[in-house]
Amino acid sequence: MALHVPIDLDERFIDRCAETDPLTRTPIADPVLSGLSSAVKLAREQATSLAAYEAAALADKTQTPEANVLRIAAAAGKTGERVAAQLDAARTRAKAEIANIEKRTGAPPPPKDAIALAMEAEIRTRLANMTPKQRGAAIAKAKAENNETIIAAVLRGPAILTGLGASQLEGVRHHYRQRFHAADYARLARLTKALDAMEKSGRLFVGLVRSAADSQAARLAATNKALLEEAAAAHAREA
What span, in angstroms and rounded, lies between the C-alpha atoms of 201 and 195? Predict the structure, then answer.
């Protein structure tokens, strides 16, 4: 069987996403990103431990090969459950933080008076009545000038009210985040990249655990054990 820990199962791929101090070049603490890193570190350490356990079990001549395979499968199952809980907790926290940033930076604050609300509605109507070329030019001009009034009117209404396509609307939102929420935008990018790296490591860990817990040899050993136990029980009843 010989389990091998993938080289990509490594928390350093997440650590690279951390923001660094421009003067000292040292990482700036981010508890959400650190949680992802710690979860992957645990997965790597447990995967390494499981591989060592497998090697020791297979070398144990005091047990039958089938018994050793079953021991490895049981250990893999417990390891998987233990690490999965940590991975899930870190993933949930990161996704919640990403969603929070996206919600907070998705559009400017709402207008404070009826006049501003009416102006936004008028802007959306004017955009919707333009030709695609005119609308594209108007949006490009608003982005170039960082015209928050027009950008706000676009972002606080569904795309159908302005005539924009979904991708065009997200382009405006992307510009707004990048221009008016630079720090949040940068953190959002870091967390998204770190979460992707954690998801990849998680898949590698799950694949390694399954290869030990649900291998063909483990399934065959479990079947043979069940048949033997059934036969022993039947014999006991007849005795």
Answer: 10
Asked if residue 202 lies in contact with residue 87, where contact means CB atoms within 8 angstroms, the answer is: yes
Query: Which residues partner with 114 through β-bridges?
Result: none
Alpha carbon distances (Å) from 32 to 39, 42, 86, 102, 193: 11, 16, 13, 15, 13
Token pair recorded at residue 136: 């594209």
Q: How many residues are recorded in the chain?
A: 239
- 37-83 pLDDT, tens digit per residue, is 999 999 999 999 999 998 998 888 888 878 888 888 888 989 999 99
Please classify residue 211 by burial: count the beta carbons closer than 10 Å to its beta carbon, then call 0-12 exposed, 13-18 middle and 19+ buried: middle
Rounded-to-integer distance, Cα 37 and Cα 18, Å: 10
